[in-house]
Amino acid sequence: MSRPPAPIQIPILEKSKHWLVINKPSGVSVHNDPPDVRTLLKKQLTPGTYQDIHPVHRLDKETSGLLLVGLDAETAANLSGQFQEHKVEKTYYALLRGELPVSTDWQEWNTPISDKAEGRKNPQGLLKDRVEARTLYKVLEANKYFSFVEVRLITGRQHQIRKHSVLIRHAIVGDTRYGEPKYNERMANIYQTKRMFLHAARMTVMINGYKHSFEAPLPPEFKEALKG
What we know:
InterPro entries: PsdUridine_synth_cat_dom_sf, PsdUridine_synth_RluA-like_CS, PsdUridine_synth_RsuA/RluA, RluA_PseudoU_synthase. Residues 18-164 form the Pseudouridine synthase RsuA/RluA-like domain. It comes from Bdellovibrio bacteriovorus str. Tiberius. This is Pseudouridine synthase Rlu family protein. GO terms for molecular function: catalytic activity, acting on RNA; pseudouridine synthase activity; RNA binding. Strands 1, 2, 3, 4, 5, 6, 7, 8, 9 and 10 form a 10-stranded mixed beta sheet that branches. The protein has 5 helices and 10 strands. The chain is of the alpha+beta class. It starts with 11 loop residues before the first strand and ends with a helix. The protein has a single domain (12-226), classed as Pseudouridine synthase. Helices cover 20% and strands 28% of the residues. A hairpin with a 3-residue loop joins β7 (135-142) and β8 (146-153).
């Protein structure tokens, strides 16, 4: 008889009485899709040590990395407000299909896009739905197969990095919504993972008047792909 799969453990990077920061695995939803972050943390955390579990910002199911969680309604509302007002510094790493010129200076993608999930045929969305979207990026490494980029969001539209990268014909490796299916299938077979190669790596946010900076290490799948 085969054993049941081991329960997913959410890595907790830092924790206080009122909030915690996790390194969300790729493939785990934030909420409303069990086993999601809220469901898993309720099993992990000691009962009575928190009022509730409130993820305070978006992070796609397919994306790994930093997620800030409020443990009471007041803290969650304060932190969520900072994200809505774009006061939080967020840095991502992504592996894009194909070769881009390596750059030491920040460059910008600023094509207007919708603020909702779209599809491969029209990543920008309908013209009437498009709003300002600004993404800063540096190409840290590149070869004829991949470009490894550091990304900072100025605005925070839904799927912003995913849309901007596919609009320049360099989709994120493993992006099944916007990328090319046969290519993603080939990469999944080569690297033995179906994950999307987008990772929320660093975050700086004000909590109770103090600046806090957090970092989630680069997943091993990225390092393996970058070996070539």
